[in-house]
Amino acid sequence: MERFQPTSAERLAGVIERAHAAGTRLHLVGGGTKAGFGHPVVADAVLDLSAFSGIERYEPAEQVITLGPATPLATVQAALAEEGQRLAFDPPDIGPVFGEAPGLGTVGGAIAANLSGPGRPRAGAARDHLLGVEAVTGRGEIFKAGGRVVKNVTGYDLPKLMAGSFGTLAAMTRLTLRVAGRAPATVTAALLDLDPAAAGRLMQRISGSALEPLAIAYLPAEVAVRTRHPLAAAAVLVRFDGPSVALDERLADLQTLVGDIAPVEAIDGPDSDETWVAIRDIAGLLPDGARALWRLSVPPAAGCSLAADLATSIPGLRWFADWAGGRLWLAVPPLADAGAAIIRPRVQALGGHATLVRAPAAIKAQVPAFEPPPAGLAALEARIRAAFDPAGILNPGILGSGISGPN
Amino acid sequence: MALIMPAADKAVMGERAALVAELGRLLPADAVISAASALGPYECDALTAYVQRPLAVVLPRTTAEVSAVLALCHRRKVKVVPRGAGTSLSGGALPLEDGIVLSLARFNRILDIDLANRCLTAQPGVTNLALTKAVEADGFFYAPDPSSQIACTIGGNVAENSGGVHCLKYGLTTHNLLGLEMVLIDGTVIRLGGGKALDGPGYDLLGVITGSEGLLGVVTEVTVRLTPKPQGIGALLAGFDTVEAAGAAVGAIIGAGIVPGGIEMMDSLAINAAEDFCHPGYPREAAALLIVELDGPAGEVEAQMDEVAALLNAAGARSLRRTRDDAERLGFWAGRKSAFPAVGRISPDYLCMDGTIPRARLSEILTKIAELSAHYGLRCANVFHAGDGNLHPLILYDANIPGELDKAEAFGADILRACVAVGGVLTGEHGVGIEKRDLMGEMFDETDLAVQQRLKCAFDPAGLLNPGKVFPVLHRCAELGRLHVSGGKLRFPELPRF
């Protein structure tokens, strides 16, 4: 297959302009770690965006960074760490989910898929941290939107539209992200040996309290062991950060809130950080390549009971809950439809949605990876896609039947 | 400013009586206002310099009624201006001569409070403050708190992506929404976002609608996130001899990894106006005053109050007070919260501007504003959301002096140009509306604006929803489809052809 590797936004615009005129379908590739996400792209040529890499302008005092989307996440995280800062949306290293080596994901990939880690409920999603974007439309036009400041309502919020659009609207060439300070200290509280129902209730009480946890997750026993967190038992894990003098008080307040349901055990130092990296990267459900992997978004109070209910219907199901129950990850043993007929109706009944993140090609050919929208919304999404990419040449097919666009 | 609105459609105006009759068949009798004497209250919003009577005003009560009205307007090619409480400072709800105003005032019910999932669903006409009032006894609040929160509605907040003094820590409207129900111009009802779950499926249209100023559809239901009330809260009040020193203090606090609930700054004119108005005990001799509010777990607030006090002193604070109780904290805020009426007392009229700049450029912009103030011969009081670089210069003028409004608007436009020149933006939270519409070219080129307008076409191909706002030049959608930056000539002839 032909491969284009433009080295400037102008040249990229030239390539896309020609592809638009000729109807040549392009597969956009940055780091290439998420080729398994969504549906296979049906393309005539590969558009390699790896040249759009590197940190262009980092202003720690303003807490903003402008960079090329192909910049490796690891590079950005290292540069931020030197200034005591971080990406608060904490994007997962998702390559290993698709059998790639760890550490190769790019910032642009995390934005294009709107990937966020355990800090999302409090810190916001990837889309909330993209302040400005420069990109090339499917007509081959270079445009910019947003800016370099957080508070900005000048024109439509196109950065939000770009985030999570899987390269179907435009090819991004420059991103400006908001970054956050790193708190002086962090600690994780573990509440052990709780069953899913008790864990679900407890997580809502903690989320609704004034304790301001940074993240809350629940690992059932089997997944806790596989996640290699130091206590290796079913656990609600609660992460706090702040001035170190205040953290002991947070743990004590948590114990007061929890009462005699479970003793609060503290995990600190590198063990705490590694536990959350493992949760972020879904390590407890990997590698296990034969299993299909689902990602669910549900009302948090319903999460754990839904998972327990699914576990009785799907023998051998492995799962864990992040975002205080609002995000469930499921690893489903081999089934003809990856369990879609069981999972999707129950998730929809709760007003949530389910994404089939990983499954064998034969299953993805039958089961939509993304929740299909109702007719009115589907028509609107197709019109939006056509407004940016009228010939449907950018990553056609990746969203499956969900957002099919003109072709 | 010679503000030019889209030319009125004479055919639509000629059929006003037939339109009103049809609206009357769709809605209860008390939901259609067409008598000239009753249209007065709708002829402007809080940007009172501009007024226009609409063809009629409708006040539907249900989503089905909104859908029927929009479908009718779509069929008859009648323009529609959606309206919440009419508190826009940018003219977002200014009516059109050949259009109707669709008021959401009767969508005034809270539909669902779900504390387990920490969310609340309301109709768009519920006021911002009413959301917090509904849940505060249970220990929650709705975080975005624009200063008009007693009057402004959640629907208007969605349209403008409103902020407030606490968005440094808690985010803007867009960060606090879970889902919406909205009606498209052809009457189609859609739901966006994730309902009670975070991160809905498909394109992030929830994010696109937020801040779209009523140009894409009419929101009929809003689900917001609720935040637990903080355990502890405290504030510090510091006076500085120079604006530069105050700006450096803001940088030092944020640089230390502290995220205050809010950091506000006022300049000398604003300090003295506030002191004259309500005597909050501000240091009159200071060139700049900072209010830093910290909230969160009690022990953390205690520790951070000490740390911030040390940083303020190190930055050269001439005076420093810290709250001992909540009464004192509210006293600190009394002057800031009444800054607008306080300035209103020292001048017959004022224009409130709304640029955002990178924090480090604060003193540069203030110097520029002082120069412009001398140039135009108009005073300017400055209040800022300093933590996020959002400026609210208040330009003082007298509308009864011929030419002063024009001068004030030219002054305001120059301030916003200066904001863009240092890497900032035209509007941080008030919206573009009509007020900043003709300045959009300062930030965006023709292609940038064409891409935005094509998005508008995907929602509203006939351009019936709130036309004349946000975009300086109206293009027909077909024309935008043909627009091509390189004028048909392919660039880089050496690139391979497909």
Automatic annotation (TrEMBL), chain B:
Recorded superkingdom: Bacteria
Species for this entry: Zavarzinia aquatilis
Domain called FAD-binding PCMH-type: residue spans: 50-229
InterPro entries membership: FAD-bd_oxidored_4_C (IPR004113), FAD-bd_PCMH (IPR016166), FAD-bd_PCMH-like_sf (IPR036318), FAD-bd_PCMH_sub2 (IPR016169), FAD-linked_Oxase-like_C (IPR016164), FAD-linked_OxidoTrans_Type4 (IPR051914), Oxid_FAD_bind_N (IPR006094), Vanillyl_alc_oxidase_C-sub2 (IPR016171)
PROSITE patterns, sorted: FAD_PCMH (PS51387)
Signal peptide boundaries: none
Keyword terms: FAD, Flavoprotein, Oxidoreductase
GO molecular function terms noted in the UniProt entry: FAD binding; oxidoreductase activity
Pfam families: FAD-oxidase_C (PF02913), FAD_binding_4 (PF01565)
Protein name per Swiss-Prot or TrEMBL: FAD-binding oxidoreductase
Cofactor requirement: FAD
